[in-house]
Amino acid sequence: MSNWTLIWHYLIFGVLPYVVMAVLVVGSIARFVLAPYSWKSQSSEILDKRGLTLGANLFHLGVIFLFCGHCFGLFTPTWLLDDIGLTPRIHQMLEIIAGGLSALVAITGLLILTCRRLFNERVRTSSRPSDFLVLFLLIAVIVLGICCVINSYEYDRSGATIILFGEWVRGLLTFDPNAWQLILQVPDWQKWHIFTGLMIFLIVPFTRLIHIWSGYFTPFYLLRPHQIMRTNGKPMK
User: Fold this and answer.
1) How far apart are CA 38 and CA 36, in angstroms?
2) How far apart are CA 201 and CA 213, in angstroms?
3) For residue range 27-57, what is the model confidence (pLDDT) as tens digits?
4) What integer best gives the mean pLDDT of the chain?
5) What is the DSSP string of 170-183?
């Protein structure tokens, strides 16, 4: 590989994850403190419910399974997987079957939500540019994930790539300066999937995705001062 290729790999897979984590944490805290009433999903249910329930349920169901699967695969040490009899090959098959089905469920729901936002005039008119950015990145990361599953099934029957990903993530957590070099060995589909995923986490503090924190920090969210609503611009008596 050329020096420029190595530099870009280092910046994207060695430096960018720490930048994203810093922005995610600091930006989310800042938004909660400075603009607590913007901390919401900005649901368009009040405008039109058609397609929302089905699309949202499918998307969230698929994403929850994908998120849990990624956490299990990336953060569980290899030695522990070996002890419970989960070989790289079996791990890979779980990724292909469970991950593939979850991705199909999520992308189905996401396409329903995207069509609703694009072709429902009331919803489209009330949408912000960031709403379309979120949809684009979510579609991109899931489609790239599906491509990764297909690539894994076709060209990586050993499950070695899964081990590399886990070692890379755990290397980042232990501040291993050479962890990024592990990504040099994975297919380009996987690299783009990782990069797009990092971009999603990067924009969380600045978009409607901020509401993903609410489930984890509900006690703090409930302590927020009550929001006072006024109708027709008239003062409260």
Assistant:
1) 5
2) 12
3) 999 998 888 777 766 666 666 677 788 888 8
4) 83
5) HHHHTT-TTGGGGG
Structure tokens at 229: 């609503």
Sorted by sequence, the CB contacts under 8 Å of residue 6 that are 6+ apart come out as 184
CB 111 within 8 A of CB 143: no
Q: Which pLDDT score is estimated for 169?
A: 92
Q: What is the DSSP string of 36-85?
A: GGG-S----TTT--TTHHHHHHHHHHHHHHHHHHHHHHHHS-HHHHHHTT
Q: Does the model's pTM come out above 0.85?
A: no
**Side chain identity at 163, as an amino acid letter?**
I
- The Cβ of residue 122 has, within 10 Å, a number of other Cβ atoms equal to 11
171-223 pLDDT tens trace: 999 999 999 999 988 888 889 999 999 999 999 999 988 888 775 555 554 45
Which tokens go with 66? 């994908």
SS3 assignment, position 156: coil
CA distance 149 to 145: 6
Cβ neighbour number for residue 188 with a 10 Å cutoff: 9
Distance CA(106)–CA(215), nearest Å, equals 19
